[in-house]
Amino acid sequence: MDNRPVRAGPTPEPSELPDERRSARKRRAILDAATDVFLRNGYPGASMDEIAALARVSKQTAYKHFSDKRSLFSEIVSSAVDEAGDPVHDEIVELENSCDVEADLHHLARQLLRRVMRPRILQLRRLVISEAGRFPELGRTFYEQGPGRTMAALAEVFERLAVRGALRLDDSVLAAAHFNWLVMSIPLNQAMLLGEDQPATPAQLDRYADAGVRAFLGAYGQAKRRSAPTASAGQGG
Amino acid sequence: MDNRPVRAGPTPEPSELPDERRSARKRRAILDAATDVFLRNGYPGASMDEIAALARVSKQTAYKHFSDKRSLFSEIVSSAVDEAGDPVHDEIVELENSCDVEADLHHLARQLLRRVMRPRILQLRRLVISEAGRFPELGRTFYEQGPGRTMAALAEVFERLAVRGALRLDDSVLAAAHFNWLVMSIPLNQAMLLGEDQPATPAQLDRYADAGVRAFLGAYGQAKRRSAPTASAGQGG
DNA sequence: TCAGAACTAGACCGTATAGTACCGTAGAAG
DNA sequence: CTTCTACGGTACTATACGGTCTAGTTCTGA
């Protein structure tokens, strides 16, 4: 017994910041373990014992850092949402100066879809949806930091692209939402309902992204290129 | 106490079929109560005691009709899915002979969206999503009876409309999926994540449906009518 | 009228949970 | 080396759950 792998000897591991004192390390460990367990088992199915065990921490310590199961849950969802929804924003705003909007939209769509379809994010979405009743503020946070954020940035840049004549629209927010869901809905809804037993391959995701962008450009692009906006996305799954 | 509203006196209520014997009535009551409790609290959060109490039935009786909590859950989800996904199919296939495809697509989209956005169905979707891990077959059932069914019917009729020249497409399954999600995604995802605190009004839903159809026709319609495919859906809360 | 089936009420079992109390120990600061 | 704080381990409380069992009651069908 007690054959734990000596989490940190007298010399702290290089990956741990030197100013991260023991208490902070424990807190991190608890957060990580809680994220894991909550994402895997949901809120009611997760037990504090399991979280403490996975974090290699006594339950007492867990309750010293987080007063409640509720507040621990809120914390891990908030931070998971934060760390999940950052770096696409820049790529969207850069689209304003694109000289090949079609190509850049395709690239952006692929990036967005790959991001949303990462297993961690899918689990997080499932978790937030299932607990939206008990934790309404987490649903709001997820929406605002996730699709809301993306669509707001898209709307802004679509507005300018429309002024430039690169897109035809009179409601940029609506167009942004249509873009977003044309790209994401098919694989996202399949993943939500069919589980991740047969996860979509990156190639399939790229095809869905491309097909969504083609449809979007058919609806909101300049009036050229009037071939049918599809080219077989494989309709996998 | 015991001021219950006398579920059925010696003379059975007219709403109850006369040939519905006591056992069948009890079974119905259990199913109804279970549906209620499961939809409200989720699978782990629902207790058999609460279900039995709500059904005004002893726990023993509940276990006589359904061997397990699991099987009771499966039953109620299956039958809820069945009763939810029926009567749109006909309207879709009739679309084949439409002489005003645009108007009929708008009408169909409104019907579909109103159906999907009913609170019961939204709760059911949430429940299935959150339990897709524990009950993969229920996720499959929901998908096949719900969006899968709709999209399959749409694909079939879109195929024929394309032959007739009323639509331009070369992948009817993809086009059907795009139609479906253009119409549904915005309010559906809002409802999933933001809860039903501010449920979308029927008028808002109609606007979302119309906007989705306009975008769809911009992408897949005949090459006429090249004004911007939007007309303000209100982008409600 | 009467036997048997179906029901009720509630005790009961084993287990699991959230959260707390106790106490001995390890690590950092002086 | 001492001291103080945080931690580990674990037993504990109180509660809740799924599921079973018993004993008494009500309904159904002939």
Explain this structure:
- Two copies of one chain form a homodimer.
- Chain A is mainly alpha-helical.
- Chain A is 68% helix and 0% strand.
- The first copy, chain A, has ten helices and no strands.
- Chains A and B meet through helix 1, helix 7, helix 8, helix 9 and helix 10 of A and helix 1, helix 7, helix 8, helix 9 and helix 10 of B.
Brief account:
By secondary structure, chain A is an all-alpha fold.
Query: Can you count the beta strands of chain A?
Result: 0
Q: Outline the biggest β-sheet of chain A.
A: none
Any low-confidence stretches of chain A, pLDDT <50, length ≥5? 1-19, 230-237
| Portion in beta strands of chain A | under 5%
Count, helices of chain A: 10
Query: How many whole angstroms does the radius of gyration of chain A measure?
Result: 22 Å
Features:
mainly alpha, disordered C terminus, 237 residues, homodimer, disordered N terminus, DNA-binding
